Amino acid sequence: MYSIRTSPQVVAHTRDEYAYDQMLALLSDPEFGADARLPSEQALAERFGVSRPMLREALARLRAEGRIYSRKGSGHYVNSAPGAAQGFAFSTLASIPDVRNFLEFRRSLEGECAACAAQTGDRVAFAKLRKSHARLGQAIAAGEAGIEQDIAFHMAVAQSTGNRFFAHTLAALSEQMAFSIHLVRDLAGRPVVARKQEVIIEHAQILDAIDAGDVDAARAAMRAHIDGGIARLFGR
Length: 236
Description:
The chain is mainly alpha-helical and 236 residues long. 69% of the residues lie in helices and 3% in strands. It has two domains: 8-78, Orthogonal Bundle (Arc Repressor Mutant, subunit A); 96-234, Four Helix Bundle (Hemerythrin (Met), subunit A), CATH 1.20.120.530. It contains ten helices and two strands. Helix 5 (123-141) packs antiparallel against helix 6 and helix 5 runs antiparallel to helix 9. The longest helix has 25 residues, at 96-120. The protein starts with 7 loop residues before the first helix and ends with a helix.
């Protein structure tokens, strides 16, 4: 029998990534919009169950990426233009065919996100997903566009996979997601109320499938949701 030993350096790296990933999830919460003040370092360390030095490493990385900024003696704040120094970025959507290609890409990517989220069965992550779905419903019920809440729901699905590469990729696509959602809603021919109701139902189907741990149904529900966006924009 062979045993695999994990070096202290690897363990430390994993914990650093955990603190960083938890901070990314926090920053995707609509509660922390542009220029919002983040909780204190002590509060964040306790919230995530990490040491202060590890949290500071994550904060330093987020500052280097342009996601947050600091004010001396005041704390850390969400950058109004996050991601200015990210490791990679997708170009803007330049045409209607470009939008369609983007939506088809999302169909494949997010279909697998939903499937993985259902397979993982992370109840803590699912609680956050349910909360983001409730916020979307509240925003739409209040007559708001709900685009930020819509994106936050999709981000919560990606975070529920437990795979940081899904979450990071979706975070890098947030600008394109916002643009395409605006376009679908502005150019779709159906009445606004009917479109919003369809979106709520589609998100609920994704949520239910992930909650049930049904991998195939979660994948199908997410793909059907994005196919719905394509149909609303381009017709069936």
